[in-house]
Structures are given as structure tokens and as C-alpha cells.
Amino acid sequence: MNELIAVSTGLFAGTITGIVPGAGVMVAMIVATPLLMHFDIIQLLLFYMSLASMVQFTGTIPAVYLGVPGETNSLPAVIEGTKFNKRKMAKLAIGICAVGSVLGSLVAVAITFGLLSVLVEHMTVFFSNATKFYLYIFIIAFCLLVYNKKNIFVNLVLCAIGFMLSVPGESDISPDFRYTFGIEDLQFGIPLLPVLIGFLIVPTIAKMVSASNPNVFLPNIDIGFCKVIKHFKKKLVASSLRGSVIGYLCGFVPGVSTVLSTNASYSFEKKLHPNNPGKLLVASETANNSGQFASMLPLLLIGIPITGSEIVLYSMLVDAGWSPFQFDNVSNNADMIFKQIVPWFVVANIVGLVIAWPLARQVLNVFAHSKKYMIAILAVGMLILNTYLGVLDYRVWLYTICLLVFGCIGLLIKKYETVPLIFMFILGNDMEGVFYRQMLI
Amino acid sequence: MKVKEIGLFVASIISAIAMFGLVSFTQSTAETPDTITLINSGKAGGSFNARTQMYKEGLIANGYNVEFENIGKISQAVKMFKETDKPTIMVYANNQVYKQDLFHTEQNFIMLEYQQPLYVCRTNASKNKTGVLTVAHGKGYDPQLLTNLLGSEVVLVPYKNSGAMLKGILGGDVDMMVNNQGKSFKYIASGEGTCEASNVLPIMGATVIGTNIDVKQIRKVIYDISMDLKFIEYHVKRKLERPSSSWKEELEYTQELEKGYEIN
Fold first, then answer.
1. Do A129 and B76 touch (CB under 8 A)?
2. B259 in contact with A at a CB cutoff of 8 Å?
3. Which residue from A4, A5, A24, A53 is spatially nearest to A352, judged by alpha carbons?
4. How many Cβ atoms from other residues are within 10 Å of residue B170's Cβ?
5. Any CB–CB contact under 8 A between B72 and chain A?
6. How confident is residue B170, by pLDDT bands cut at 50, 70 and 90?
């Protein structure tokens, strides 16, 4: 029952998140905090899996219908999907994407199953400080090179701010409290939620306010589910399988993960079939879902988050008592993936295929007509959430002050992607410990 | 009309005051002497959490109304413990006292539940190694004490917690580690090295403390709960030594043990 609640809420949240432009998985996780704080480890993982999978499904819908990417990795869907829409074939485009996404997820599960025993056997390699050190170097390099149109200076400044915010309180290498400036509440560090709201939600709200209203839907030819399957089987299976494998491999790349999966698969397919929007669309959207599953594995197996939304999930998992430091957890984690996560992941994808499709269009309609109310609800909800968690944490004043300060800064820097800042804020302490130990060893 | 309005206003104020008084009275009467706040200072999966849960069940079985505060972080739990004015108990340990600035005293000490020594483990691969050895230790350990014990030919490598240390030694980061009993047993089980209990390093004592409560009276209840089958199984499974004696002797012993964690 608990698993069902987690999966169904994840699916619902994913349906909305995929459709609302600019609201990614990371934002959805923060908005869902009041619910997620009552979830246990498995429920959190299931919620995240369902949410992330569903976003890949429904993100295609605004991309195809409105030419607006629901997620950052929906860009190929915008380019190829609008071609379908202009020919009144949007339903076919969404249908083949949904079927391809399910296939991509299943291929990802199969590849993982084949590789897992080898991975678990050599798991101690991942325990060493050196491995973590190089991984962090890799992640920092990606943070610098990927975000904000590859503007290294901006990314460096954001990383530096994130790290500085992670410094107050207790470090990973010393029992002393540092940079608390005599404020007792700072002994426990700067709270996570105001940072997330300030640097992520506030800019998102600002962007939503300034975004123009979505276009009117174009009339569409009604195409049945069976026809979509037939079309897929006949023309698109090979593209989908190629996309699955490319997407899976790219899913492991920190920072960019599914964005790289989608774009790499799209580029590869474009070389093979430059003038076939169906194949291009399916290859990129299949890669999306396959990459999504792959990107979860480093976190699930060895406790290293590699995407922005995983960072938020990671901090929630740790709060729920998950201990990625337990060496005997590695085989348990592998066991958990296949016994408790994968079956629900498959179910979530199939349900997604059946439900997301009609539901998403309704949600899209609602959003198009009541955008300002949804923005107001989100803003007030975040304010209440921040105060509520501040009270629970016995640090309500610090939460409020942090929200005001970070919210203002977030507004000022709204045109920048703040993921590098969030990365460094959450992982800064751990990175500091890893780098310090690497110098000693 | 005006007089009527004023009357209504006065009546409203009186009603509000009456309601406030009623609510305050109900709140104060709801907190009978049998209501205890139990602070959970550990995360799910950890020993503090597991023990707190068992005490919660025991207190409820003994007829107490338990208000469970799930804090999950020792520093915040201690802050709450210090600030509360309600009868409150919390699972604690002597290795935290200097860092949290909360010592075991006659006013707060309830019981010493168990004790365990620290272990010094060494990898098989480093058995014949000469020269400088790298040693993993918890960030809260006194470096001077470790250098005195292990000699100056060591490089001390601090880790966040006992689990991270174990991962580090298994990953090949260090030649030795100083860790708690549970993690040392796991290391021995891995076959990668050996461990020995130290008679020089401080002993960790797991305790129960309370505030705004008659500690000697509640000790009887807590002691009985800790002698329950579930608790005994917990202690036996982890080979935890139980030094039961009188309240006074346990307190003196705990205070003696906690001096070992003073960081110079």
C-alpha cells in the first residue's frame, strides 16, 4: 500500500511537472517536501522514479503541442514534434514517444541486470577516497562546462557561492563548529530548503510570470492506440533500441545525464535518418527514459548523486536514515533495485503510457487557463512550507531570513541556471572531506 | 445601538479570555505526570534510533503517554533537551559530552545502558609495511591521544563517521583504522584485516538522560524496559557489555569514562 501511494503520487506529480514549462523534477521534489518528509527510503525512491519517468512522458506533450520544452531535455521533441503538429499528427507523435519511452525503460532495466553482478563484485573500487575524488573533479568540471551556455566564469562564481554557503556549521573532518558568527542556529549549517526555494523556485516563478501565454491547440487527427503500436513496430523499433543503448550510456555522465542522452541519441539518429522526424523523435525520447534509469544507478548503488534532482533526493534519503556509507549496503542496494524498485518502475512506465497521455492534455488545458492562480498557489505554498519546516527544525527565524536573502539573490540572478550552486551547497562538505583526505593519503 | 455594539465588543473580549483560559487549563491538565517527551536523536537505521524506539514501546507498555520528538540529529536534539520545560528523556552517549556541552550529572543521569571499547584494525596488506602508516579515525577523536597510542610514524586521516571509515579501509585508503565495535566486527568478517580492542583508547558508554523529571524514579522504569527480551537480544547480538550496578556507581563510572573524550 505504501509503495502504491508513493508511485501514484509520483505519477501525478510527474504529469503536472512535465507539462508546466520550467518546472523540472528538482522543483517538483521541493514542492512535494511536506509529503516526502513522511516517506521512508523505498517510498522516496519510488516517488522519484515515478516522477522522473512520468516527466519524460509528459514533457513531450507541451513540446509537441505548443513548441515549449517541458523539460530541458525535450528540445529534440520541440524541433521534431512541431513538424507532426503542423501536419495535424500530434497524437501520433506523442503516442510513438510514449511507446518508445516504455521500451527504453525496459532496455535500461535489462542492461542493468546483465551488468550488475560484475559491478557488485568490484564494488570496493568505489569505496576508495580516490574514486570519489576523481568523480567529484569530473562533476565540478561538468558544472563549469555545461551550465549557463558554458560560461565558465559564471559557473565558477555559482560554485564558489554554493561552497561558501555549505561551510558554516560542522565540517566532515573536524568536530568544531565554524563560521557561525555566534549564531547558535548556524551550528547546524544553513538550512537546505530556503536555499532551494531562493535559488530554484523563486527564479522559476519569475520565469513563469514573464513567460507568454501558451498557444491555442491546433486541431488534430484522432489516432488510436493500436495504430500507434502498429506504426511503431513497423518503422521505429530499431531507432528506439539505438536510442535506448546510447541513452543508457550517456545517463551515467554527471550533471548532464538525460540531456546528453537525448541530444546524443538525436544527433546519432540524425546522421542515419536526417529527414525522418518520427525516427528522430523516438530515438531521442527513448534515450531520455533509458538515461533516466541509468542516472539513478550511481546513487542507488554507491550513494553518489549525479544530477541536480538526485542531489535533492539524496539529502531527503539521508534525512530518512539512508546510509550510503554502509559497505554491506552495496549488495543490499543491488537487491533492493531489482526486488523493490524495478517492478514498480515497470508498472509506473506502463501506467504512464496509459494514463499520462489523456491526463496530460487535460492538465495542459487547465494550466493554460489558470496560470496566474497556479503561480500564486506555488508562491504561498513555498512560504508556508518554509515556515513549517523552520518551526519543526526549531530555527524558524533563520529559515525566514535565509528565504528573504536567497529569494532576493535568486531574483537578481534569475537568468542564470543555479544548479552548480545547489550542487556545491549540498555536496560541498563531503567534497571538502574527500579532497582533504586525498591530500593526506 | 452604540451601547449594544460596545456590549458586544466587551462580551467578545471576555469570551476570548475565557476560551484562552480554558485552552491553557486543558493543556496543563493534559500533561499529567505520566506524560513523557522522548527525543529521538538518531536517524533511522542507527543505534540511537533503534534504542529510542524500544524505549518508546516500553514506556507506552508501562502506561506512559509518550510524546515522541523525532529530531534525528544529535546537536539539535541536545538543543531541545536543554531548552525544554517538559519531562523529557533522551538516549545519549559519553563520547558526545564535550562536543555538545552536555555532561552527565546527578540532575540528568538515568542509566548506563552498555559500554563498548574502541578497536584498532589493520589491513592484511600492511602487516609487513614499514615507515609511515595511514590511520583512519573519526573526526571527533583526539589526535594527540591517537599519536600517543600509535606513535609519531602515522598520518591521521579523519572521516565523518564510523561507516565512512570502514568504507575507506575497505577501499584501500588507509593501513589502519580506529573504529567502534560494530564496524570493527564487520571489518573482521570481511577477511581483509584484523582488529584488537584497545585498552588505552576511551570506552564508549551508551546512556539515557532526562530533564524536568525525577531521574531516580524513572530509572526503575527505564531499567526494567532495558531488561526486556528485545533489549537483551539487541545487546547480545552486538556483543555489548552491560555494566549494571547502582545509579550512583553508574553515574560515577560514566563521568570517569567521559573524561576520556576531552579534546586537548
1. no
2. no
3. A53
4. 20
5. yes
6. confident
Kindly list the residues from chain B whose CB atom is less than 8 angstroms away from the CB atom of residue A328. 186
Identify the residue among B78, B102, B173, B174 best suited for mutation to test binding to A, counting A beta carbons within 10 A and taking the highest.
B173
Name which of B46, B76, B167 is nearest A394 (Cβ-Cβ).
Answer: B76
Q: What interface predicted TM-score (ipTM) does this complex get?
A: 0.75
Phi-psi region of B101 (alpha: psi -120 to 50; beta: other; left: phi over 0): left
Task: Give the mean model confidence (pLDDT) for residues B17-44.
Answer: 62
Lowest mean pLDDT among A213-222, A240-249, A344-353: A213-222
Lowest mean pLDDT among A82-96, A167-181, B224-238: A82-96
The nearest alpha carbon in chain B to A172 belongs to B160
pLDDT computed for residue B28 by the predictor: 45
A124 contact B CB<8A: yes
- As its CATH architecture, domain B119-197 has 3-Layer(aba) Sandwich (3.40)
The pTM of the full predicted model, rounded to 2 decimals, is 0.71
Residues of chain B contacting A440 with CB distance shorter than 8 Å: 134, 155-157
Counting one residue from chain A and one from chain B, the pairs whose CB atoms sit within 8 A come to: 95
C-alpha cell at B111: 542509566
CB A123 within 8 A of CB A330: yes
Residue B186, chain A, CB below 8 Å: the answer is yes
Residues in chain B within 8 Å Cβ distance of A322: 45
pLDDT score for A4: 85
Contact A145, B186 (CB under 8 A): no
- The domains of chain B are located at 34-114+204-261, 119-197
CATH C-level class of B34-114+204-261: alpha beta
Which residues on chain A are in Cβ contact (under 8 Å) with B156?
440
In DSSP notation, A135-175 reads: HHHHHHHHHHHHHHHH-HHHHHHHHHHHHHHH-SEE-SS-S
Q: State the pLDDT at residue A440.
A: 92
Mean pLDDT over each residue of chain A, to the nearest integer: 81
The CA distance from A151 to A142, in Å, is 12
pLDDT of residue A152: 92
